[in-house]
Amino acid sequence: MTPPNDVVRAVEAVLFAAADPMTIDSIRAYVGGGDVRAAVEQLARDYAGRGINLVQRGDAWHFQTAADMAHVLRRDREEVRRLSRAGIETLAIIAYHEPVTRAEIEAIRGVQISKGTLDVLMEAGWVRPAGRRDVPGRPLTFVTTPAFLSHFGLKSRRDLPGIEDLRAAGLLDPVDLAVEQLAVEKNDDEH
User: Fold this and answer.
1) How many CB atoms within 10 Å of residue 27?
2) What is residue 171's predicted lDDT score, i.e. its pLDDT?
3) Degrees (nearest 5) of the Cα angle 165, 169, 171?
4) Which helix (H) or strand (E) holds 101?
5) For 52, how many CA atoms within 13 A lie in the half-sphere containing its CB?
6) Which of 90, 120, 143, 181 could serve as 130's disulfide partner, Cβ 3.0–4.6 Å?
7) pLDDT at 42
8) SS3 2
9) What is the pLDDT of residues 26-44, one digit of tens each?
C-alpha cells in the first residue's frame, strides 16, 4: 500500500478536525491546490469497512463512527427499569383523566400514592405538572407529555385504548373483570 499523497493527507486532517460536515469548496479553502474531490473519494474508499467512515451528507462530507460499532462507544448501558404497579396505575389514571390532582389519583386508585411514584413518572418525562386547580388549597394538576405519546406510539390521547380494546388484548386484570361482571349482574338484578 502506497502512502497517501500530501493532498489526501491534508484533506484527511481537515475533515478529522472539522466540527461540522464540510463541502468540497470549504475543504479546498483550507487545503489550497490539488484535486480535493479525488482526495475525498480516495479517503471514502480507504475508510470503507473500518471503525470510522467518511460519509457524504448532501453536498458535505464528515467522519462518523461506523454504524455497526456504535455500541462500543456506549459507556452507560441503558438499564431496563420496570414501572411498579402503582406507577403503571398512576400513569394510566393521569393519561385517561388529565388534568388530574394527586387527591383525584388517590381517590380513583383507592390508596395513597407515594411522592416517589410521581417523581419516577416525571423523571421518565411522561408526566409533568400542569398548573393548579382553582379550588381551595389550589392543588397541583398533572398531565402526560409528548414524550409519553412518543414512547407508547400514540399520535394523541384519543389513541389510548378503550376498555373493549384492553379486554380483547387480555390486558385487564381478572379481578377487574370479576368486579365488572358483578356490577353488571347487580344492575340486571335491580331491573
Assistant:
1) 20
2) 59
3) 95
4) strand 100-101
5) 10
6) 143
7) 93
8) coil
9) 999 999 888 999 999 999 9
Sign of the CA dihedral running 37, 41, 46, 48: positive
Residue with C-alpha cell 467522519? 63
Which stretches of the chain drop beneath a pLDDT of 70? 1-3, 75-81, 165-191
- How many CA atoms, within 13 angstroms, populate the side-chain half-sphere of residue 168? 5
The string of pLDDT tens digits covering residues 130-155 is 999 898 999 999 999 888 887 877 77
CA distances from 51 to 6, 54, 65, 71, 101 (A): 23, 10, 6, 12, 51
Find the angle CA(96)-CA(101)-CA(106) to the nearest 5 degrees.
Answer: 80
Report which of 147, 141, 127, 28 is spatially closest to residue 87, judged by C-alpha positions: 127
Model pLDDT, residue 71: 77
For residue 3, give the amino acid letter. P
Residue 105: count other Cβ atoms within 10 Å of its Cβ. 22
CA distance linking residue 177 with residue 179, whole number of Å: 6
Which string of DSSP letters, residue by residue, matches 17-63?
H-SS-EEHHHHHHHH-SS-HHHHHHHHHHHHTTSSEEEEEETTEEEE
How far is CA 38 from each of CA 7, 13, 34, 43, rounded to the nearest angstrom?
Answer: 9, 15, 9, 9
> Rounded to whole angstroms, how far apart are CA atoms 126 and 148?
4
